[in-house]
Amino acid sequence: MTNGKAFNGAESPRTPRGSIALLVLVxxxxxxxxxxxxxxxxxxxxxxxxxxxxxxRTHRTAxxxxxxxxxxxxxxxxxxESCRAAANQAEQCERERTLEGIARQLEEAGNAVSAPRRPxxxxxxxxxxxxxxxxxxxxxxxxxxxxxxxxxxxxxxSQVEQHLRPADPLRVQAETVAxxxxxxxxxPGDRALLVLALGAxxxxxxxxFSRVRSLSIILRIATFFVLLGAGGLAAWGWxxxxxxxxxxxxxxxxxxxxPSGEIHHVKGNVASDYAQQVDVLVIxxxxxxxAALTVIASLRQIQGTSSPYMxxxxxxxxxxPTGALTAFIGVLLIRGAFxxxxxxxxxxxxxxxxAVIFGAGQHLVTRFVxxxxxxxxxxxGRPPAEPEPSGVRTPRP
Length: 397
Prior knowledge:
Blueprint: H1 17-36, H2 62-82, H3 89-114, H4 122-143, H5 146-163, H6 169-184, H7 190-239, E1 255-258, E2 261-264, H8 279-298, H9 311-335, H10 348-360, H11 363-378
Antiparallel strand pairs: 1-2
Helix pairs in contact: 2-3, 2-4, 3-4, 4-7, 5-6, 5-7, 6-7, 7-8, 7-9, 8-9, 8-10, 9-10, 9-11
């Protein structure tokens, strides 16, 4: 070389392979995240909404797929209404403002459907989606032609009859108006009344789903705390087995009967000396098995529901930790000679068998929860009963 120095390959420039790999990973991540969520945008909000096509791909949950289909249907209806012109400039301005409101509501619904799912956010996204979808449907009823209003009057009447009380003044007027519209066409003021009745029926439907959601949340919280209690007892029995003694000393036997097995009895020892760490776990596992039998038996009474909050599943899950807890309490009552006729159990299989029976006996407690869940689900889509007049009592049969 001209400078007299030998060429050193270690000091030669090299391609930054690590930086290139990092750039490739960042680029791929940006593409993935960009495809998952992309906000909807429109140049002219006075016209029908344009949801991002990428947001209408497969969402892997049933309610999101159904909501996406409903949004597309309302988008097409708004497209039809944007083609019609009003008689004067004031009405045209009002139509454009209403179409703008429909566009915003469908945009909010589309964003809720396509937003990334996070833990414990499903109920909020569902409520946001359907609240905006129903709001857009009410606004479309305000814009539709008289011919479409005649056809939709039957649908509005069906919604009103499902969710409003029979003596509700709005329902009574809506029935009269719907019958007149179907027979002779709409009169001035009929459209506004049908719009008000449809909005009130949707509000009543939201209240019905709200009761289902609140009961489902209550059952899940109760399941968590019962499971926490059963787990706490199992941990207590693991670390302090003598304090939660599940063993018996049957008369005339040379062994101590514990849930985890039978142990040779040494004269002078008491039952707590034979307690094992897994005794409480065995009892609770047997109680879970008994509760599982009752859940399987109750499946024949479970019916499908249109509610999205899986209330029957929440009621069924409560049975499992309750069965473990009732099994522990039942065997503890036998151990304390609280139940007449049951003092000392003779063998380990007998202890486990009684734990299974007590675990299945949790149905005596949870059947009231099942009845409440069935009653709440049956109220969805059914108008509430009329309140009884004060001072009047319904005669008992």
